[in-house]
Structure formats: structure tokens, C-alpha cells
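Obj.: predict assembly geometry.
Materials: sequence records (below).
Method: joint structure prediction, all chains together.
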Amino acid sequence: MQKMLALVNGKIITMAGRFYERGTVVVKERIIAALGPDLDPPPAPR
Amino acid sequence: MIDATGKYVLPGFIDAHSHVGIREEIYRIEGDDINEVSDPVTPHLRAVDAVYMGDQAFQDALRGGVTTLMTGPGSANVIGGLSLAMKTYARTVDEAVLRNPVGLKAALGENPKRVYREQKKAPMTRMATAALLRETLVAAQNYAVKLAEGRNNPSRRPERDLKLEAILPVLRREIPLLIHAHRTDDILTGLRIAEEFNLKVSLQHATEAHKIPEELAQKGVPAVVGPSLTTRAKVELKDRTFATPGILARAGVKVALMTDHPVTPIQYLPLTAALAVREGMEEEEALKAITINAAEILGVADRVGSLEAGKDADIIVLDGPPLDWRTKVELVLVNGAVAYAAGSYAGLLNSIS
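Observations (raw C-alpha cells):
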């Protein structure tokens, strides 16, 4: 199974021209899978 | 899921010039592999052969939020060797390498002439330093011609020359010449030689570059500025100021910052950015100088330097604004793994990896 984690509700300074006051970063394995203000965190593993 | 409510989340910081893993802070000869002072021209030396992952500086780097760094040979030699970009968290240097090489180190100014004057051999002057650099570049050009001739006629193929071979990627503009220069005359000598040989360059230290910002901007030369959080250990540092990065950035020069660790301890990289802001650099530019600009100058911006989908998950979580001296790094992910955790995240260190 792929390892995933999410950092939620952070003040995200992307250094790519965007700032999210309350945003989520989703990490899949070694890579940033997605980030933004309205992302659902990945489901908890069962 | 990791709650980052109220925290600042950024890409890991990047130190664009250090000697981490090569020159250990608390050791003398045992941890010192930085300068091969037996020969002023050593382009064939490779930093990757000297990086010790047990250097405590890697832990210090993580504590300061630094997840990528450039490390390489010192400035005793006119041509010192090949530098690399690497992550600060890995089991082995081979795992840590992000790009190798990122450039070939060349040094102008006081250091080569001081070291070799003591040995009573060239270079003893700035003129000899420049001449040795030119001579070696010409030798590499000639070697490239012979290699090309040897492709069609094996009998004319030259013997393999590791020194000249190491310079070929610089002549082909695949990697930059990393020009160590503090004073304006040394900076301009480096740029003059680079133009003569049509080289890509990246200016290292750039202590007096604030006196010639237009020249650098016009030539499109990036500058890795520092170390500024130090004493004036040499005459060529006389006019060192934290205003330099801001002046260069306003002139349109792409600027990154360095600690030159162990000259300035690597964990203070964000503090050097904060001090640059105090002396007039825009806060966003200062953050760029330790993230995306550093990545672009090192040629690794496709992997690190900003938070974007598809890039490496090198992420730091801070308990306050990134350039506030009171702010602490609480969590560091490198390649998505927890490399450092403190404060409210301390329990994560062993639970996620």
C-alpha cells in the first residue's frame, strides 16, 4: 500500500507564488501529491 | 493526518554553499577534507568522495529547517574540484545526492595566493591565479579537440586525463564554474575569463558585489552571497555587509544565501536571511534566497525549492513566521519521511517513517 500523509490547516507559503491561510499538503510516498485550501485529507488506513 | 493549525508550512530551506560532511566543525585533521593543498589545479576531485554522513552538521541543518545543501571543496586551489547538491537526511551520500556535480569550484583572490606563497610556488599573485585558470581551460579545450579527433581515428585518441575530463562539462556549459570571489576586481576577473571561454558561472561569496550590481544583472550572473554572519577574517572581507543581497536583488540579480558551514553554522541560514531583510532586502526575496532561488541556481528546482505537486516532499513546519528569530522548526519531512520532530510533533519521529 502506498504511504500517504497530510499536513492540515497550516499557513502554507509555497514559494511558488501562492499563500494559503489554512491549507493542506498531501504527501504520497516521497512526493507532494497535492496542496491547496480545499483539499480533503486522504482517508485513514483501515 | 498531521494537524498544522497555526503553524507555518514551507519548502525545506536550501543552503546554496557549504562544506557540510567535508569539513567537520569540531575536528581538525580527522574531519578536514576540504582543501587538497598539494596542487593548485585539482578539477578531478569530487566532493562525493569526501562527504561523511556522520557529520553533526546534518542534524544541525535539519534543526534549522535546511533539507538540501550544496557542499564541495574549499578555496585554497585555483580549481578545487566538483561540488554536489544533496539532501540532509539519508543513510549514505549516494542516497542523499540530488545532483552531482552541480558545478566546478574555482577560486580567485586571497586564498590561493596565500596558500601557495607559503609553499613558494604559483600562484603567488592574482595574475598567476587567473593565468593558471586560463591555462587549464585552454588545456581542456585542446583535450576536447583531441577526443573529437580520436572518435574517428582511434590511433589519435589521447590517454584519458581525469583532470581535463572534469572540465569538459564546464566548457560544454552543462555545469557552471563556481567562482569564489569577494572583491570587485576578483569578481570581474572571473567574469572576464568566463566570457573568454563562454562559460556559465555562478558567483560564490560576492562580498563586494553590492558595488557592481548593474554589471552582474546585465550579464545574468547569479550570486550566492555570504557568509555574512562572521568576523572579517580576511582583508577581502573588509566591506562585507548584510545589505549586499538586497542591493543585488533590487538590481535584478538572482540571489541565494550561504552559510559556508562551518564558517557560519548551518542552522543559522534563516537568521542570515532575516538579517538581510533588516538591511533592506524584501522579505519575499530573502525567503526565495534560501528556497527557490537556491534551487534554481543549483539546477535542482524541478525537485525542491517550492511546495508544488510532483516535487519532493521536503517540507518544514514552523511555530512562527519563517524569518522571525524566535521561530522554531518543529517538523521536517525529507522525501516524505520525518527527519526531525520537536515540540508538539516530537512523538512523530518514530511513528511515521
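Conclusions so far: The mean pLDDT of chain A is 89.
To do: check interface contacts against the pulldown list.
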